[in-house]
Design goal:
The structure holds 2 protein chains of 2 kinds.
Chain A (H helix, E strand, L loop, with lengths): L1 H38 L3 H9 L2 H11 L5 E5 L5 H9 L3 E5 L2 H9 L5 E5 L8 E7 L2 E6 L1
Parallel strand pairs in A: 1-2, 1-3
Antiparallel strand pairs in A: 3-5, 4-5
Helix pairs in contact in A: 3-4
Chain B lengths: L1 H22 L8 H25 L6 H18 L15 H23 L5 H17 L4 H6 L7 H13 L9 H22 L1 H12 L2 H7 L8 H21 L2 H15 L5 H18 L6 H4 L3 H13 L5 H4 L6 H15 L2 H4 L2 H8 L8 H23 L5 H26 L4 H5 L4 H10 L2
Helix pairs in contact in B: 1-2, 1-3, 1-7, 2-7, 2-8, 2-12, 4-8, 4-9, 4-10, 5-7, 8-9, 8-10, 8-11, 8-21, 11-12, 11-13, 11-21, 12-13, 13-20, 17-20, 17-21, 19-21, 20-21
Classes of the chains: A alpha/beta, B mainly alpha.
Chain lengths: ~140, ~450
């Protein structure tokens, strides 16, 4: 019985070695196309590939808002809250995912800015200050 | 430019650890390579602890205030050991096959570094939690408990502080260059594995098993590919440091080794919540040997690691910061039970990520030598940690193998690999009897590596 266990153990190690060598060559083959795919891209192009189109929208919000402000963001993108707080920190953000919530939160007037991702509406007490293909940015009057 | 600065920061952190080890004459019987492999871990624990103390004492985190004490300490160490740089270790005599293994390991490391620097952080937790909190600390120039409360951050802080330390040195928040730190953990894990095993079992075996470890796809993912920036590989490295120091303590009963192990246990428990069970199990084994050998005076040195943990928990409690269990309350069901077991099993047999390491490990458990002295210790650490994860999945909300077991197995993989190597070394394998090999050349070739 012990002999069988030892045989299985050694065979596993043997196949493990074969697979490890295969993995090294697999990585070697993968290396060149990956290098070609990524190395010539700009930083923002890479980030769009990694984070999706929401990255462009959040960069736009970051560009047109003042530091240390509070921003209400409307977006249906799953990454909006976590990527938003990561990219825009120390700006304080609140993310809403439906229009009723948006109107309710915007009417509180506690935000310096409201940013709408892939959506457009009129907001009382806010003025549109910048637009991009993926959204609009409003500033409190 | 930032990449070079991050690289220099890694070198600086390692020099801090190395100077400490040399200055206090710890690990005297160890060669330079092995001391170097512990140095990075020790360095990160020290610089993180420094930032934590500064924050508690309201000292602003400026690069001058942070670097000056270390530069003075390193200079004193160099003045005391002037011949340090002239005593470089000799390059060992290697055969062609050793160079081939070395090339494979070097390529894996290079690949991890390349992948780390080619793109921004990809893994969700990497930017949503680990790097976000590091950015928060770096821009705030301290640990602000009100922000930790606001964002519900209650996790141990060593890795955040390490990232903050590097950001302070480079002077800005660069979330791509910082991923080089993940590659450093990958490199130092391999270096420690090689240093520890080659010292006991010879250079060729050391190289051979280091290669098997280096080629694990999931380890490469955490060292630089998609999972770079997470704290799982740092935890795996620190837990491995603690484990190897425990084995050395059992052999030599050196109080300095025990003290160093205790410092590493503090680092382990302060990297991720999962580090605490590691620290408890390793301490329990150390206590057993302390009592067995009647070395009661050593007991106090083992307790060093408890001090920063208690302080951090007290700090969180006094500032109203959540604890782990307020986010993961008790809940269980049969579905959770079966999902936890099946999800873990599914990952253990995932050859794409783990190759055959877990198959080999569990088969090795059936062999006699797996349960003698070192094998027993390594198995207790690996299996207790694995059981802890499964039990956590079964009994707490918000935890499931689908979301995390692939990462959590990184914590125990170097220790499991060491156990496999231990079994191969001490179990008798007569290849002629086992497989009926008669060709002497093949037998000799395989025997060089296996028996």
């Amino acid at each position: 019985m012990n002999k069988v266990k030892k045989q299985i153990f050694l065979l596993l190690i043997f196949f493990w070695i074969i697979l490890s060598i295969f993995d090294v060559f697999y990585n070697l083959i993968k290396f060149f196309p990956e290098a070609r795919q990524w190395i010539f891209l700009s930083d923002s192009q890479k980030r769009v590939l990694v984070y999706g189109p929401i990255y462009n929208f959040l960069s736009f919000v970051d560009k047109y808002t003042n530091p240390n402000t509070s921003i209400l963001i409307y977006s249906k993108d799953d990454k909006a809250y976590y990527l938003g707080r990561y990219m825009l920190y120390p700006k304080n953000i609140t993310v809403v995912v439906n229009t009723q919530q948006l109107i309710k939160e915007a009417s509180n007037r506690k935000f310096n800015y409201v940013a709408l991702n892939d959506y457009s509406t009129k907001l009382v007490d806010y003025k549109a200050i910048a637009t991009v293909s993926s959204g609009i940015l409003y500033k409190k009057l | 430019m930032n990449v070079i600065l991050v690289f220099l920061s890694i070198v600086f952190i390692t020099v801090i650890g190395y100077s400490f080890i040399n200055f206090f004459k710890i690990l005297n019987g160890f060669d330079k390579l092995l001391r170097l492999s512990y140095s990075f871990g020790l360095g990160i624990i020290f610089v993180s602890f420094q930032l934590y103390c500064y924050s508690r004492l309201n000292i602003v985190w400026t690069s001058a205030d942070i670097l000056t004490p270390w530069v003075i300490f390193i200079l004193i160490h160099i003045i005391k050991n002037r011949n340090l740089l002239t005593k470089l270790p000799k390059w060992p005599r290697l055969k062609k096959v050793d160079y081939l293994l070395l090339f494979f390991i070097a390529f894996c490391t290079f690949y991890a570094v390349f992948e780390a620097l080619i793109r921004p952080p990809v893994a969700w937790d990497s930017w949503a939690a680990w790097l976000f909190q590091s950015k928060m600390f770096f821009l705030g120039n301290n640990i602000d408990p009100s922000l930790l409360r606001h964002y519900n951050f209650y996790y141990p802080i060593l890795y955040y502080l390490l990232n903050s330390f590097v950001f302070i040195i480079i002077g800005n928040f660069d979330d791509t260059s910082i991923l080089l730190i993940s590659s450093a953990f990958y490199f130092f894990t391999l270096l420690l594995f090689f240093g520890f095993t080659s010292r006991r079992y010879g250079i060729r075996k050391g190289l051979f098993f280091t290669f098997l470890l280096a080629a694990l796809q999931n380890l490469i993912r955490h060292g630089g590919r998609m999972e770079a920036g997470l704290a799982d590989l740092p935890l795996g490295y620190l837990a491995f440091c603690s484990t190897t120091l425990l084995l050395d303590y059992i052999d030599n009963k050196g109080v300095k080794t025990l003290t160093l192990m205790s410092i590493f246990l503090a680092g382990t428990a302060l990297t991720k919540s999962e580090g605490l069970p590691f620290a408890l199990v390793i301490s329990a084994i150390a206590i057993y040997y302390i009592f067995k050998n009647k070395l009661f005076s050593h007991f106090i040195y083992l307790l060093i690691w408890v001090v920063p943990i208690v302080d951090w928990e007290a700090y969180k409690r006094s500032n109203g910061i959540m604890s782990y269990f307020s986010g993961h309350y008790f809940v269980t069901s049969w579905i959770k039970f079966s999902d936890s077991l099946l999800g873990t099993l599914k990952e253990l047999i995932n050859i794409k990520s783990w190759n055959l390491i877990w198959f080999s490990y569990f088969v090795s458990l059936m062999l006699k030598k797996s349960w003698t002295k070192y094998g027993l210790i390594l198995n207790v650490i690996v299996l207790s940690q694995l059981i802890f994860y499964i039990v956590t999945y079964i009994f707490t909300a918000g935890n499931s193998p689908e979301s995390s077991i692939e990462r959590l197995l990184i914590h125990i993989v170097p220790i499991a690999m060491l156990e496999i190597m231990f079994v191969i070394n001490y179990e008798k394998f007569n290849l002629g009897k086992l497989f009926g090999f008669k060709n002497r050349k093949i037998m000799k070739f395989i025997a060089d590596y296996v028996s």
